[in-house]
Structure formats: C-alpha cells, structure tokens
Amino acid sequence: MRKSSVLFLVLCVFAVIFTGGCSFRKGAMPEPNLKIVGQVTDEETGTPIGGARVADHLYGGSTTRPCQETWTDVEGRFVLNTWYEEHALVVSAPGYPPKISSLLTKAFEKESQVEMNFTVKKAATQASSAQKSEP
Question: With contact defined as beta carbons under 8 Å apart, do 114 and 104 qualify?
Fold first, then answer.
C-alpha cells in the first residue's frame, strides 16, 4: 500500500472516530437485525478497557445511514446493534491507537448475535520511544 493511501485511510479513521455526531434522518432504514457483542481488553495485561468506543466505520453518520457506535462498560463489554453485511469495526480508547477489524456476517441471516473481541495495544509514548532508540 502506498504511503499516501495509508495516510488517507488513517485520516478517514480519525474523522470517523472523533466526529461522533450523527446527521441521520430516522425512518430511512429498517431496525438493526444483528447484535455484535464482545469485550475490549489491553493486549499486554488483559485488563478490560472501560469507556472504549466501538463503531462501524461504514456507518460513520450520514443523512442516509445512522451512526452505529457504542461504548464499553467498566468490564470492557459492548453491544453494537447493526445489520447483516460487511462491517469495518473501529475500536478507540484514550491512550490506545485506533484498531480496525473486519467482520462479514452470514448472508442468510441465520444468526441474531455474533461475538467479536478486541485486544488493543497502548500507544508508545515519546519518552519510551526515545529510551528504546538509545544504544
């Protein structure tokens, strides 16, 4: 992937993560028919991450699609109501870089709930990066 493509993808993810506002007009789509459940934990410690945002990148909020986002509870658990189709889920939390994972739900709508867990790694700080680069 070219550097400019990666930069564009990162900027799009940050735009979705930090805008958070919905401009969707209710009534344009049917009610969600799939529940995605899971937990967000720290990669190194396994500690649940409360207050993390879990959002469907494809539903970033527009006039034709509602925002599909939720936040984890104190045990890092979340429930995201959505529809059957491909999803690009983005997890973000303070001190952690955003993480994107894809989920393709079954085409025949046989399941009403799927589980998807996330482990996220803390962002490197400038001080720890400088220490690692010293000989």
Answer: no
